[in-house]
Design a protein that fits this description.
binds flavin-adenine dinucleotide; 5-stranded antiparallel beta sheet; 340 residues; Uridine Diphospho-n-acetylenolpyruvylglucosamine Reductase, domain 3; Uridine Diphospho-n-acetylenolpyruvylglucosamine Reductase, domain 1; globular; 4-stranded mixed beta sheet
């Protein structure tokens, strides 16, 4: 493992914000990772983690050591007639895992095709798309504690998965490095096609896992900008979950407002579509200070001129303020800020 000084991270984040890490290394093994942990401990420096950089907003200067997770490996741990358990290295590419699973007849991940990034980051925000979240398949998350370098595993129940949320974004943030994810996939295909956009593309005919995979890729390519050509980090805001009384007041004022059930043991609640709120506030397709709100998906802020994080965050807070003023709803940022 080689530690480099003053490393340019602009090509390591899909939003393409200019950023430099004081120190940087890639780790390919747990031993490498332990070495990096003791290196920062000796120098009392902060440690940051990076996968594919598709869900982060990086500060211009990042003090301490940025560790890029590159631990690979796909292993079938056990098989039964109806399911298979696989253990995947944190540095594996997520979409390639989906393709591999499908080609082996391991089903479940089709709806999550084409989500950028690494397997290790997938549990962090419990990635989800088209009605499916990764938490549904996670049996266990393996990792190393940052303070002790101790290898531990968390069962799914301990990961506190919720909508775009988990223990890794909260209590274990900056405390735990995910080194592998253990998934239980089905050998029997079960279709999840509740999303209207997916149904439209699927049309008539028998629904197979391959057809869902292709439909998801088609819908995503038509709606989302490719970060390779138009820098972005996907949805910039989470869909807000609001209490029932606020939902009812809004639904009366805006009868066409989309909403979904989000009730839990805490009580009845509704999830609103952040894209709809942003669109209604007049931001869809708009460009401000060089940041463009994508014309096909108002949740995506694009950064075509590769401007720094503060410009992106300024535009994001303008959107938050206008949505709050119009609907009384606070939009929470989805990507993680690193460096501040
Ligand atoms: C075009 C586009 C479309 C997207 N669509 C979706 C979507 O449909 N659904 C969805 O949920 N997300 C989506 N995203 C967001 C993003 O792809 C996911 O959140 C993805 O899981 C991030 O992976 P990454 O490897 O790039 O993580 P990074 O951006 O590198 O890191 C994200 C966070 O996880 C932490 N982290 C990374 N690796 C580890 C590790 N091994 N251990 C502990 N912490 C770690 C980082 O420190 C950071 O806080 C999209 C992004 C883009 C650009």
């Amino acid at each position: 493992m080689q530690i480099q000084r003053d490393v340019d991270l602009q090509s390591c984040n899909t939003l393409a914000v200019p950023s430099r890490a004081e120190f940087f290394c890639s780790v390919t093994t747990i031993d490498d990772l332990r070495e990096a942990l003791s290196w920062v401990q000796k120098r009392q420096l902060p440690l940051h983690l990076l996968g594919g950089g598709s869900n982060v907003v990086l500060d211009p200067e990042i003090p301490g050591l940025m560790v890029r997770m590159d631990i690979r490996g796909r292993e079938v741990v056990s098989q039964a007639h109806d399911h298979v358990v696989v253990r995947i290295g944190a540095g594996e590419n997520w979409h390639q895992l989906v393709e591999w699973a499908l080609s082996n007849g391991f089903y479940g991940l089709e709806n999550l095709a084409l989500i950028p990034g690494t397997v290790g980051a997938a549990p962090v925000q419990n990635i989800g798309a088209y009605g499916v979240e990764v938490s549904r398949f996670i049996e266990r998350v393996d990792g190393v504690t940052i303070s002790e370098g101790e290898e531990i595993s968390l069962r799914a129940e301990e990961c506190e998965f919720a909508y775009r949320d988990s223990v890794f974004k909260n209590r274990l943030r900056s405390r735990f490095v995910i080194t592998a994810v253990v998934l239980r996939l089905s050998r029997r295909f079960q279709a999840h096609t509740s999303y209207p956009a997916l149904q439209d593309v699927l049309g008539e005919g028998p629904v197979t896992a391959e057809r869902i995979f292709n439909a998801v890729c088609q819908v995503r390519r038509s709606k989302l900008p490719d970060p390779e050509t138009i820098p972005n980090c996907g949805s910039f805001f989470k869909n807000p979950i609001v209490p029932w009384d606020l939902y009812e007041a809004l639904a009366e004022r805006y009868p066409g407002m989309p909403s979904y059930d989000a009730s839990s043991n805490i009580g009845p609640a509704r999830k609103l579509a952040a894209a709809w709120l942003i669109d209604q506030a007049g931001w869809k397709g708009k460009a401000v200070h060089g940041i463009k709100i994508h014309q096909h998906q108002a949740l995506v802020l694009t950064n075509p001129s590769r401007l720094p994080a503060d410009v992106v965050l300024d535009v994001a807070s303008m959107i938050q303020m206008e949505v709050k003023a119009k609907f009384g709803v606070l939009l929470e940022m989805e990507p993680q800020r690193i460096g501040s």
